[in-house]
Amino acid sequence: MAYQIDLSGRVAFVTGASSGLGVQFAKTLARAGAGVVLAARRVERLKTLRAEIEAGGGDAHVVELDVTDHDSIRAAVAHAETEMGAIDILVNNSGVSTTQKLLDVSPDDFDFVFDTNTRGAFFVAQEVAKRMVARCKGEAPGTYTGGRIVNIASMAGLKVLGQIGVYAMSKAAVVHMTKAMALEWGRFGINVNALCPGYIDTEINHHHWQTDAGQKLVQMLPRKRVGKPQDLDAALMMLCANESHFVNGAVIAADDGFGL
Fold it and tell me: How far apart are CA 181 and CA 164, in angstroms?
């Protein structure tokens, strides 16, 4: 007997959906039956993704979102719920990084990373959770109470890596943020968990794996390979499933054993 996770009738809000893992997350949720809100700054790329999802029989809507702008967060979430209905699933995926030694990090570099990865992720989750809590209390419309929030952290949040120390710090904060949210919002039926991907081959870093430095890094990995975006599908689906109501505050490493 096959086991299938069905997200029909659910609305999923995916940040950073214009590239990389966000694209894969959105496609995966749509294939499972969720209506997907595609959120990012690069709207034209979102429209292309929407067309692809709709061509496959899925349902998607585009909203412009800058996670470093609080007004943009509130407007995007409000618009999404107006167009698609109450948000049941948040995949908090927006992220940026810099590559430099800590002694070379400027205040602007630090703020660039933390404003998106930590501050932005927090206030997106907060805005969505406010609405989920209101539904749980019967103060807002919606037939489904509770919800799923998946914060996309990183193995770098669990294991410090050279040259990306500030990124690692920002993602470590996301891990702790996840636990704090799970503790505070769990009583409202909201499950908050973190997914920590390892090295994944995406359009953003694909060229790197062909370089000498990239190949050297691959040889340091336990199974001498990098992952593909679809390698995260199973973990994402488990965390978003209706059946995962007993999984709260978990930090799941999907890094092929690199953090061991």
Answer: 26
Q: How confident is the model at residue 144, as a pLDDT?
A: 66
More confident residue, 23 or 220: 23
Digit-coded pLDDT (tens) for 18-34: 999 999 999 999 999 99
Question: To which H or E segment does residue 185 belong?
Answer: helix 165-185
Instruction: List the catalytic residue out of 3, 144, 167, 199.
Output: 167
Residue 143 has pLDDT above 70, yes or no: no
> Which tokens is 69 given?
């702008």
Contact 217, 164 (CB under 8 A): no
How many CB atoms lie under 10 A from the CB of residue 141?
10
Q: Confidence band (pLDDT; 50, 70, 90) for 135? A: very high
| Active-site residue flag, 167 | yes
Go through 153-181 and write b for each residue having 16 or more CB atoms within 10 A of its CB, e for each that does not.
Answer: bbbbbbbeeeebbbbbbbbbbbbebbbeb
| pTM, two decimal places | 0.96
Enter the CATH code of domain 11-201+228-254: 3.40.50.720
**Rg from Cα positions in the chain:** 18
Quick one: which of 80, 117, 82, 81 has its CA closest to 98?
Answer: 117
Q: Which residues contact 186 (CB under 8 A, 6 or more apart)?
A: 192, 248, 249
DSSP states of 113-146: HHIIIIIIHHHHHHHHHHHHHHHHTTSS--S--S
